[in-house]
Amino acid sequence: MSDAPTFALALEQRERFLFDVTFDGPGWPVLRLDEPQPLGDGSAPNASRILGAAVGNCLAASLLFCLQRARVPVAGLRAEVRGELARNEKGRLRIASVGVVLRPSLEGVDADRISRCLELFEDFCVVTQSVREGIDVRVSVEPEGLAEGG
Q: Which residues pair with 85 in a beta bridge?
């Protein structure tokens, strides 16, 4: 058995395309997902937006960690993420690109003090680099309660 770190979560349909996501951390809040209209009601973010949030959060956290290790005082950090959808050759919507703008508040900091972090931080972002390189996704469907076929 591998000693590699893992994570787990579960999704449960509430109604139509509304799902609750529970995570493996004790006391973590449930995350609600929904699809935009006409499939869902658009009452919560959809999976594409969560992927964008994951990329943006990972990059922001990676930059913040590097700046803190370099003893650069950070007064705050804002990340803005914009995703673009496009159709592939089969006409299916895909996330074509994700753009992230990171805005750390570094009052009075010399640009030379952050240059090393700017060279390194992206490489330490687990989510962004995994998306860039492609992730092995294994899928199985295990229906429950099927009637025996004839």
A: 95
CB 9 within 8 A of CB 22: yes
CB of 66 closer than 8 Å to CB of 117: yes
Please report, in tens digits, the pLDDT of each residue of the chain (150 residues total): 578 999 999 999 999 999 999 999 999 999 999 999 999 999 999 999 999 999 999 999 999 999 999 999 999 999 999 999 999 999 999 999 999 999 999 988 888 889 999 999 999 999 999 999 999 889 998 889 888 765
The DSSP 8-state label assigned to residue 60 in this structure reads H
- What single letter denotes the amino acid at residue 101? V
What's the first-to-final CA gap in the chain, in angstroms?
Answer: 40
Quickly name the fold that domain 46-135 has: GMP Synthetase; Chain A, domain 3 (3.30.300)
What would the two tokens of residue 111 be? 């640009």
- Judge residue 103's burial from the number of C-beta atoms within 10 Å of its C-beta, 0-12 exposed, 13-18 middle, 19 or more buried: exposed
